[in-house]
């Protein structure tokens, strides 16, 4: 049987990186792996930190893909947008499963680290807020947690003021000749989206003739997949929080589970869901 060192030698694997970039160099692993700095003496805080840091990395990729998808839809370039939106949905699946790991933290374990969190909370995640805004859930009050950091605020503000994924999708339908109310293709993008019977009729026109409007029909299904995955993430968030802290108030000042349950009722693309009843 070949010895391990013989196998490595026969494969001609590079072993000397004194002058070349290594895997760790490329991924900046020294910076990433030194970013976990527990404040409590409790063993379980590492889980809490890593779960949230990895979620933020997935959200960074989600924003990268979501922003590019919105730009592609605005440019009438749907094939790359479909690829990006499909990737966003798969990222959401990763974020859903991240709750499975955090759910292994028991109430006594969380109670041991909670005092060290002070008022910090996922509620204050600027990347998550940008995702919400990009998906159309606009709320001016959600800018305030970032007001103390000018550069960060400017990024969140830009997402708040820009047309959302759904806004650009409706504008695309209008450009393709599908009747669309002017109130939904030129409006104040900072205002929360309001469902419209006329918009529903526009989507129904697409869904009743999918062969004629195939790419728009596929866009509708990509939006459905994305919101489906986002709903699962929200639901898993609620159940994990209730499992770990019950109905205590959140560290960020919200009602905790009560606030998260209200968020379950937020519908991002209402006409896409309503048309299924009316078809």
From TrEMBL:
Domain of life, source organism: Bacteria
Enzyme class per UniProt: oxidoreductase
Reactions catalysed: L-tryptophan + O2 = N-formyl-L-kynurenine
One Gene Ontology biological process: L-tryptophan catabolic process to kynurenine
Cofactor binding, note field: Binds 1 heme group per subunit.
Required cofactor names: heme
Short name of one Pfam family: Trp_dioxygenase
Physiological role: Heme-dependent dioxygenase that catalyzes the oxidative cleavage of the L-tryptophan (L-Trp) pyrrole ring and converts L-tryptophan to N-formyl-L-kynurenine. Catalyzes the oxidative cleavage of the indole moiety.
Family: Belongs to the tryptophan 2,3-dioxygenase family.
This protein's name: Tryptophan 2,3-dioxygenase
Species this chain originates from: Ramlibacter cellulosilyticus
Gene designation: kynA
